[in-house]
Amino acid sequence: MAERRILNSWKEIASYLGRGVRTVQRWEAQLGLPVHRPAGKNHSAVLAFSSELDQWLDSRPVREPMRSDRQPAAAHTSQASDMKALLSTAETILQKMDSLLLRTDEMHRKLSDAVDGMLEDRTRRDLRASTRARRIEAGAA
After folding, report:
1. Phi-psi region for residue 65, left (φ > 0), alpha (ψ -120 to 50) or beta?
2. What is the C-alpha separation between 134 and 121, in angstroms, rounded?
3. Degrees (nearest 5) of the Cα angle 116, 121, 122?
4. Per DSSP, what are the bridge partners of residue 7?
5. Tell me, which fold does domain 6-59 have in CATH?
6. Which helix (H) or strand (E) holds 49?
7. CA dihedral 98, 100, 101, 107 (to 10 degrees)
8. Nearest-angstrom CA–CA distance, 22 and 10
9. 10 Å Cβ neighbour count for 12?
């Protein structure tokens, strides 16, 4: 039989279990970690027996991590088909975005040409008006 130690604080209990103080306090509240409160009050000093902690740990269910090599073939097939569907959708979206970009570039070019034409027309009108004004001034003189 293993030696029975008395752990006299949350810090000693946490150290014995290899966890933090907050974790072992949470385990007491949520999972029934066996600690004793000699004063019988909820927030009084605590103590625990190492043998009870060991028994409690041994009685807890252990969840094995799920490994990819243990997944059934159907899951791999389903994941692969999901990935192919996502890839296909992504390619379609990229094609549409490329098309929109080309249209946007074309519209930008046309708008730029229109603005340039308007500026040239405005410049010609202003030049003609300026020339007329000079002629009128020269004729009046």
Report:
1. beta
2. 20
3. 95
4. 48
5. Arc Repressor Mutant, subunit A (1.10.10)
6. strand 48-49
7. 150
8. 9
9. 18
Which pTM value belongs to this model? 0.43
d(CA 14, CA 135): 102
Q: From the CB of residue 81, how many other CB atoms can be counted at a distance below 10 Å?
A: 10
Please give the chain's pLDDT, 141 residues, in tens. 567 899 999 999 999 999 999 999 999 999 999 999 987 777 778 999 999 999 999 988 877 666 655 556 666 778 888 888 888 899 999 999 989 999 999 999 999 999 988 989 888 888 888 888 888 888 776
- Sequence length of the chain is 141
Q: CB-based burial of residue 51 (10 Å sphere; 0-12 exposed, 13-18 middle, 19+ buried)?
A: middle
Instruction: Outline where the chain has alpha helix (H).
Output: 10-17, 21-31, 50-59, 73-140
